[in-house]
Amino acid sequence: GCQRHEKADSRASRTCCWNVRPPCDRQRDGFRTGLASERPALWGFAGCLVSRPSAAMLLPFKHVLGAAGTFLWRRLSWAARSELRARVPTRGRGERNRGLEDFSARLAAGPTLQHFLRNTSPPQETHPQLEEEPEPYLTSSILEEARRKVYLETYGCQMNVNDTEIAWAILRKSGYLRTHQLEEADVILLVTCSVREKAEQAIWNRLRHLTALKSKRLRSQAPLRIGILGCMAERLREEILHKEKLVDIVAGPDAYRDLPRLLAVAETGQQAANVLLSLDETYADVLPVQTSPDATSAFVSIMRGCDNMCSYCIVPFTRGRERSRPMASILREVKLLSDQGVKEVTLLGQNVNSFRDTSEVQFRSAAAPGLSRGFSTIYKAKEGGLRFAHLLDQASRVDPEMRIRFTSPHPKDFPDEVLQLIRERHNICKQLHLPAQSGSSRILEAMRRGYTREAYLELIQHVRDSIPGVSLSSDFIAGFCGETEDDHQQTVSLLRQVRYNVGFLFAYSMRQKTRAYHRLQDDVPAEVKRRRLEELISVFREEATRANGAMVGRSQLVLVEGPSKRSAAELCGRNDGNIRVIFPDTEMEDGTGSGAVVRAQPGDYVLVKVTSASSQTLKGVLLRRTTLRESAAHR
User: Fold this and answer.
1) Can you tell me the distance from the alpha carbon of 53 to that of 376, in angstroms, rounded to the nearest whole number?
2) d(CA 450, CA 500)
3) Shortest CA distance to 382 belongs to which of 410, 360, 409, 413?
4) Which one, 147, 254, 532, 595, has least CB within 10 Å?
5) Where are the alpha helices (DSSP H) in 400-525?
6) How confident is the model at residue 68 (pLDDT cuts 50, 70, 90)?
7) Distance between CA atoms of 372 and 144, rounded to whole angstroms?
8) What values do phi and psi take at 316, rounded to 5?
9) What is the 3-state secondary structure (H, E, C) of 364-408?
């Protein structure tokens, strides 16, 4: 109990909380006994706590709860206990027992702990489909004022395209309208990329143009608000807000739910920012709004962030740690896209094939799948969860006439069950992205990629043996820290040896916060980087032309996307290997065997006989309309 530090006055409920001694073993044992034998009394005591009980309220529990009541009684002040003893008359043992029995009966018939919890918990939503109330910071005047129009501009990777759709879904729910005309916009939001310096420079140039547009806005119009979203917002928030003062709001990749509040703050003339990274945000409950309603393909984000910590990469610092969406929400979105007529879905993630859904308890103890042979990670194997192979299996079953792709994977996460699934399912595209980054084992070690040149080439051979006719793509960096001419030539030889169909090649751009920034020297001169990059691009195009040339004279299954950008008389689409195919917009057989002729429409699967090939494009003649099932049966 308390030492006598309190002032003994007439207020018996006043207690001291200094120097409270913990209960002894005997008191703890008695407290457990009281919990077991006098639960009704304990629930009554819990109810009393709601109103901050006085000493008088606690006196009955001293007798009812036994040792537990004694412990609670001793926590009262000495003065409070003395006054209570004086007030309560002394009774005989029998009378006291009858009083206690009556008191216990009344407690048992009274309210339970669940009653108090129920009264303090928010009411359960019985109709989840009903329209939600507007956010409290979005007043009726804001929601009704001229229906503010937002213009969204996307830079960078496919993840940013998906982020744009998520941001728009959140803003539309808050009453904003979408415009594709810059001049009509009241709010301009740029979804940005921070992977390379060139991408960031494009954003800075665009911001200065938009700031000039903002200054020319008529006073009779509502002020123009400009915002930066995505990776660049996370990396350069201080410079964007305070040094340049070009924008009104800044929102990182995990803060899109906060956009309505940020814009409401901006309406008061203040700058607003939220760049906090999350360990669990996946936007699983936000259904992205397709930016092109008539599109034949769509992106579905399945995980966010990356744990690989490659020494050159900024992604772990701008998008945070890996976390995966619950599989059920992914499959619901894929099903909805199928119902809308989408014919191709690409599963997205910074490290897409390390997907691990831990939302279902029964799978949390599952063993981790093995890594590709010769590959390693900087972190321990992650046990438990539903893995990528299971997701790929279930997604491919949603609609047999919908193609499934995925990007961007890491080469370490290709267990045999994934490769076997790709080979067996006719609607999983036979195309893999296997980022190599360099052909030199020494540079790969400096990059912390977790494999050697030899392990990578062994994986390439295993993939080609497992999936005949597979199309391969890759990423390469020219001029990484410490790269010698010999290292560069090893990359050149890797390009020739593998002969990729598609490639993404860039000069190295050092990023702050990365391991390379802190531990390595960016010692390859800019002109050397440019020369090496040009050589890599030249070799890639030469080898890709040969790889694509092997398809000349063969029929390719093509998903029609729409008119060609270069000629209205031609259509374009992509084959199973994700290579662009151009063909004349002419009549063709309808594919039913009836002899009827039709013209190809976006979303149709057609057979095209390839007549010529380049490093990036196939050209051919239209044969007939078909389906995924029929095409697979005639392979």
Assistant:
1) 60
2) 21
3) 413
4) 595
5) 416-424, 441-447, 453-466, 485-498, 515-519
6) very low
7) 56
8) -60, -25
9) CCCCCCCCCCCCCCCCCCCCCCEEHHHHHHHHHHHCCCCEEEEEC
